[in-house]
Amino acid sequence: MSQSSNPSPCFSNEKKPQYNYQNAATTPPPGYPQGPQYISQQPNSVVLSTKPGFKSQLLFCPSCQTNVTSDTEFENGAFAWGSAFCCCILGCWLGCCCIPLVVDNCKDVTHSCPNCRAQLAQRSRL
Ligand SMILES: [Zn+2]
Which portions of the sequence form the region Disordered (predicted)? Predict the structure, then answer.
């Protein structure tokens, strides 16, 4: 009794699972940029859009390209003349009407550069 058995099954064809990493992440990691770093810092310039005050202040002179402390000049503007006119109408014409023309608080202010005398800003009382 000879049993022809084949007790050695061939499992050689069984494929092992291969972890085939595909070229999914072959891009090199991005290095740090070594270029010049642009620091988001605004230039230290005074914008003239803000209303200047009635006292000397730090303003940017476009002629000198620098920030200067403005010189202030008081001039008799519409408010000073209007106040003087009102004083005349109210009867204060014996000299009181000249008070608005003398008091600096009633005058317009002109900011000018102390270096080049350029007019930087103007502030009216009205
Ligand atoms: Zn200037």
Answer: 1-37
From the CA of 61, how far away is ligand 1's center (Å)?
A: 5
Is 8 part of a structural domain of the chain? no
> Is 49 part of any domain?
no
Residue-range definition of the domain harbouring residue 112: 58-123
Per the structure, the count of domains in the chain is 1
- The alpha carbon of 34 and the centre of ligand 1 are apart by a number of angstroms equal to 39
Do the domain assignments include residue 63? Answer: yes
CA of 35 to the centre of ligand 1 (A): 36
**Cα 72 to middle of ligand 1, angstroms:** 14
Are 97 and 89 spatial neighbours (Cβ–Cβ below 8 Å)?
no
CA distances from residue 25 to 28, 29, 33, 75, 93 in whole angstroms, order as listed: 8, 9, 21, 74, 92
Q: Assess whether pLDDT exceeds 60 at residue 5.
A: no
Q: What is the pLDDT of residues 20-59, one digit of tens each?
A: 555 555 555 566 556 566 655 554 444 444 678 899 999 9
